[in-house]
């Protein structure tokens, strides 16, 4: 994943917040905007990409879609989980839009 | 979207059910399996693709990931919605795995 790209990290806010963030990047001169999400936010990431392309910026295309898995250990879950080395996997997506 | 492909349509069942469906297709000789999902099931589709690749079939690669929008009119919502032509958009994903 390229680090110097304009990135929009998708969370729990309404879809249009992230759509606006993407549009702001493009209006600021960005050639590429990367939409990143994990877990249940992934479907919202696709909503954002589709709304940006179809409703606001028809000249924006999908350059690439990558999926992957992030592994992390739940360290902040309280003492009853201490000593367990349970690794949790969460799926990720990165949608790169370009114009 | 190619129609003659082996397709696994992701719904609300546990992830491993769909993983097993993919593996069954590949073990039956399929060269490609298409994982399709809409809306909130999209994150599960990515889970399925990641589990198939990383845990069960390491020689399987992602051939393509496509996203899109399905439009439908809520016709089955009862009489109070009759006469409205509200079109609902739902995001879709299609992950094509190949070996």
> How many helices of chain A does DSSP assign?
2
Q: What sort of overall outline of chain A do the alpha carbons produce when their principal axes are compared?
A: elongated
Looking across the biggest beta sheet of chain A, what order are the strands in?
1-2-4-3
C-alpha termini separation of chain A? 19 Å
**Category by helix and strand content of chain A:** alpha+beta
The main sheet of chain A comes to: 4 strands, mixed
Give the proportion of residues in helices of chain A. 25-40%
The oligomeric state of the chains shown is: homodimer
Short description:
2 copies of one chain form a homodimer. By secondary structure, the first copy, chain A, is α+β, with helices and mostly antiparallel strands. Helices cover 28% and strands 34% of the residues of chain A.
């Amino acid at each position: 994943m390229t680090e110097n790209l304009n990135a929009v990290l998708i969370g729990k806010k309404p879809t249009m917040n992230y759509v606006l963030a993407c549009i702001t990047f493009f209006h600021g001169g960005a050639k590429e905007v990367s939409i990143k999400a994990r877990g249940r936010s992934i479907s919202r990431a696709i909503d954002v990409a589709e709304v940006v392309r179809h409703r606001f910026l028809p000249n924006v295309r999908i350059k690439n879609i990558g999926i992957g898995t992030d592994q992390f250990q739940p360290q902040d879950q309280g003492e009853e989980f201490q000593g367990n080395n349970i690794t949790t996997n969460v799926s990720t997506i990165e949608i790169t839009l370009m114009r």
